[in-house]
Amino acid sequence: MNVLVIHGPNLNLLGSRELSVYGPATLEDVDRVLRAEAQSLGIDLEIHQTAREGEIIELLHAGADRVAGALVNPAAYSHTSRAIADAFRAVPYPVVEVHLSNIHAREEWRRTSVTAEAARGIVAGFGPGSYVAALRALVKVGEDT
Ligand code: DQA
Fold it and tell me: How far apart are alpha carbons 3 and 66 in whole angstroms?
């Protein structure tokens, strides 16, 4: 089972960015935790980070014939991007939206995720553990379908 992981804008700055919100873990730390979980589940991960909306969409399209699912943290695009939401709808595999922080406990504008409307599910608020929980959920979706 191959799983695509896409980290959106500003997530490359984890570990120095808004520490009181996102904590001290770097993106490398997040990926290390996720890779360890994937290894124990026998899953191959393909991990990308990009600040560009169009690249997120292109990565999703490119996964169509080779991934069983995707974990995507669209970061701030979650709150604005109908184009990424449509890409979630367009691909033939389930997409789980991931957020480190609990977006529903933050500023009003973050409480709406337009991309989450198109995701199979959403995990938010557990720091790097959000990705681990999302990966487990994705495996369960695969087993149930
Ligand atoms: C985030 C939450 C978003 O609102 C924010 O723009 C991010 C990170 C999270 O993982 O908690 O960049 O997606």
Answer: 9
Please tell me if the CB atom of residue 10 comes closer than 6 angstroms to any atom of ligand 1. yes
pLDDT in tens, the chain (145 residues): 999 999 999 999 999 999 999 999 999 999 999 999 999 999 999 999 999 999 999 999 999 999 999 999 999 999 999 999 999 999 999 999 999 999 999 999 999 999 999 999 999 999 999 999 999 999 998 888 7
* Domain count along the chain: 1
Q: Is 33 in the pocket of ligand 1 (CB under 6 A)?
A: no
pTM of the complete model: 0.97
Residue by residue, DSSP assigns 72-113 as EE-GGGGGT-HHHHHHHHHSSS-EEEEESS-GGGS-GGGG--
Domain span at 117: 2-103+112-144
Query: Residue 60 belongs to a domain with what CATH number?
Result: 3.40.50.9100
Tell me which of 7, 77, 99, 131 is the catalytic residue.
99
- CB neighbours of residue 34 within 10 Å: 24
